[in-house]
């Protein structure tokens, strides 16, 4: 039976765990990359004069623009147009220590306010030649923040890639297991039922694999049972054919003698007829056994009757059996304890079993020894046993064993079992039925 997967071991929980672990790993990676990125960026900016070089580049571009457009310091509209084309750039223009242009205050005639120059220590100033003279230009670029943003974006992308790698690696393990199960199912489809399905883990996939392996074992068991049934049928048919050949040969011999009149007297004639009659009855008995065996073996699952108390089902049957054996000259010792248990049977099968048992006792048991009938309990099963002594004097009747096989087949179809214990002196048959209530 396949085990039930707990919630903590389910694929859903494993996937959630994988996502959480991957997210924590990605966050840890991002933290490390952020610290390292900040440090390396600072080293690069400071070591390469990144800001100064960018400022110089924009000053050169501004000088070319001014010369091409022949701008004066008061052409604010054209200066604003140039600043807009540049990204993340702000400039202030001073002429004669007076602020004449500020890109942060577009459209305003700042020079009219005569704002004095006010430079900060971290700002760099550059001289630009305008048409109305040389002016001091202060350039402030946000491109250094843009550089840091690019670094930040790279850190986020790398962390996300790490998150995806962790998730895909975890999913790939499951996919590899699924592909392995698919390959193993293909092996089973090819007929190699001895191949064991790989059971790995404690999730739904391992539960599925265990179920597949149990199904494989069931198929193997079913095939073995069918093969055993075929062998048993072949054995029975072979033995019955051999047993039937003997009386048929005898009948043919005696009828040939009678047809040719090769008998000495009327007494011998009657003796041959009696032998023919005896052999004919023997053949009828064998064919009846064979018919019963083929009938039982050919039946599928039978429908059992409603559950009933053990005593209610078997009291009358035991009474009739004891009475019949008594009429046949047998002494019956009856020791059956009527246990408080419920069993489920097929009355037709049980009647046939009792008929078979009594028939075997009459044919094979020693009438001078008592027949013992007693109750039997074994684990969660209840039933009875019939024990008798085997007759030792005179000619022993022939036995094919097919009657015992019929009893075994009928008990299996009722969910019970039969046990035969035999030696040279005694024969014992045990019949057991499963209890439906735990009172055995």
Automatic annotation (TrEMBL):
One of its GO terms (molecular function) is phosphorelay sensor kinase activity. It is found in: Cell membrane. The keyword Kinase applies. It is a multi-pass membrane protein. Keywords: ATP-binding, Cell membrane, Kinase, Membrane, Nucleotide-binding, Phosphoprotein, Transferase, Transmembrane, Transmembrane helix, Two-component regulatory system. SMART domains: HisKA. This is histidine kinase. It comes from Blautia pseudococcoides.
């Amino acid at each position: 039976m396949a085990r039930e997967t707990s919630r903590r071991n389910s694929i859903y929980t494993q996937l959630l765990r994988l996502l959480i672990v991957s997210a924590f790993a990605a966050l840890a990676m991002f933290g490390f990359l952020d610290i390292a990125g900040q440090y390396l960026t600072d080293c690069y900016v400071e070591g390469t004069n990144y800001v100064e070089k960018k400022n110089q580049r924009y000053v050169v571009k501004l000088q070319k623009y001014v010369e091409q457009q022949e701008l004066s310091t008061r052409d604010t509209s054209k200066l604003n147009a140039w600043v807009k084309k540049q990204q993340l750039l702000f400039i202030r223009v001073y002429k004669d220590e007076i602020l004449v242009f500020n890109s942060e205050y577009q459209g305003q005639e700042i020079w009219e306010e005569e704002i004095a120059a006010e430079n900060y220590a971290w700002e760099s100033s550059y001289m630009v030649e305008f048409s109305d003279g040389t002016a001091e230009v202060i350039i402030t670029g946000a491109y250094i923040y843009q550089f840091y943003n690019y670094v930040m974006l790279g850190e986020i992308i790398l962390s996300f890639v790490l998150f995806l790698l962790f998730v895909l690696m975890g999913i790939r393990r499951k996919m590899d297991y699924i592909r392995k199960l698919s390959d193993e199912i293909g092996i089973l489809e090819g007929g190699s039922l001895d191949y064991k399905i790989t059971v790995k883990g404690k999730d739904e996939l391992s539960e599925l694999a265990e179920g597949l392996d149990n199904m494989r074992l069931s198929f193997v068991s079913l095939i073995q049972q069918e093969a055993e049934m075929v062998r048993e049928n072949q054995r029975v048919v072979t033995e019955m054919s051999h047993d039937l050949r003997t009386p048929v040969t005898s009948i043919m011999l005696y009828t040939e003698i009678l047809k040719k009149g090769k008998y000495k007297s009327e007494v011998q004639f009657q003796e041959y007829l009696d032998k023919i009659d005896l052999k004919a009855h023997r053949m009828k008995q064998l064919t009846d056994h064979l018919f019963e065996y083929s009938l039982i073996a050919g039946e599928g699952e039978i429908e059992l009757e409603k559950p009933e108390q053990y005593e209610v089902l078997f009291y009358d049957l035991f009474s009739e059996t004891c009475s019949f054996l008594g009429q046949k000259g047998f002494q019956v010792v009856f020791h059956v304890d009527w246990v408080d248990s419920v069993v489920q049977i097929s009355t037709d099968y049980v009647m046939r079993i009792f008929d078979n048992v009594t028939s075997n006792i009459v044919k094979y048991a020693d009438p001078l020894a008592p027949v013992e009938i007693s109750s039997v309990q074994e684990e969660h099963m209840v039933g009875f046993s019939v024990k008798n002594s085997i007759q030792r004097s005179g000619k022993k009747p022939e036995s094919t064993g097919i009657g015992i096989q019929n009893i075994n087949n009928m008990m299996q179809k009722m969910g019970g079992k039969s046990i035969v214990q035999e030696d040279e002196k005694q024969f014992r048959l045990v019949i057991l039925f499963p209890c439906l209530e735990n009172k055995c």
